[in-house]
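Morning!

This is the sequence you dropped in the shared folder:
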Amino acid sequence: MNTTALNTHAPALVDKPCETPCTYSIGRRLSLLLAAQTVIGLGVLLAFIYGATTMLFIAKHDEELQKYSSVLVEVLRSADAQGGEAEMKAKLAWLAERSPTTFVEVRRADGSTFYRDASPSFDINQQSSRGMAFSVPTKAGGPLQGQLLLDCSRDAKTARHMALLLIGTVLAGGALVGWGTFWRVRCSLRPLLDLAAQTKAIDARRLGQRIALAEPAVELQPVVDQFNGLMQRVERTYVQLEGFNADVAHELRTPLANLIGQTEVALSRERGVAELEDTLVSNLEELQRMAAIVNDMLFLAQADRGVKARRGAAVSMAEVVRQVVEFHEAPMEERGLSVTIDGDAQLPMDEPLVKRALSNLLGNAIRYATPNSQLCVRIAHASANGRGVQLWVENAGPAIDPSHLPRMFDRFFRADAARCELEKPHHGLGLSIVAAIARMHDGMPTAESSGGITRVGFSLHAGPNAAA
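The structure's back. Tokens below.
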């Protein structure tokens, strides 16, 4: 064994991505989304509030600085007029004792220090302090240039506490909204859990069970209606399938029983060559009947899978009908029947399939028509633009119960078992094949019976690429 080759292909198996989509919780996802939206929304709102509060603090500080600088200028002017520099320094020291949250520094015009507060109660270099410059004219020399600093640390601390409080409010609001949303979504999704439980309770033994909401919801009711409609179709299909299986078993049981019985009789004692040949001929007929049933079932299975007819060139429908009528001349003569063809149309079609459908319709009409009567095959355009053809076969005979008409094209359905000819038994798939061929040509079968006249037929439509 080549281990190198195995090692070469091993990473491809490891790196193969998982094709199964990851599941997620709707409640959890909605909770996280709403919590995130709440955090963002509250964050923006509270950030605006924090910014507005900070601007109010700044405006207040500027106002205090403006007022205090004005007071300093007026005091220094008055002191300069009364006692000169000594009086001004005394006034500044006196003001410094009464305003511990401020720091004042005054310089002369040449840049030398005129006055400086001795020991400020705050760090004048920190960012929480805010300053403003002022100028004081004097009599002795040039104007004095002063710098006033205001301690804003208390308001800055208040702003920090406010920021922490706002951040906590945002996070708490997001968590509260997320938890509340998760709880409400879980309560709101409880009807879905109830529907899931009801759906789980449905099985093959309870196909007639339907789901329902205790309190109808506008958003969920269409889903419930669609599901119940689907279950109704599934139940109908399941019932039809059970009936179909039973009919198939019944139809195959008869020829099998005949084969077994005739073979047992033939083997019960010695038989001559002529007797054995008769037994083999009879068995062959039963086997051919079984083969016909199987072939017809296979054809119907293909039609059910959506197989479409292979369309050829446009042909005359009346000519196709004449060829099928010629094939049925012998059984028609036996019953004294005649046939007329009314109308004609050109249509691209799968000619062998259409001939098979017509043959089944004629065989059905011959079987149930009143002896010595007349059959009529009518051909007409099914639409104004000529892209479809309607064909039906009329025969005079006993009327069919209206309740049986919708089931005429069901498999193995017979409106009246007593009407089946024992000499020429048929297995009840003829009209089902007619319906299948009609569907393969995008058409549909039709049947009606009234006034002693029965009409059975089908429609054909031109393909999408056919010329109008």
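Headline: The longest strand covers residues 388-396.

More detail when I'm at my desk.
O.
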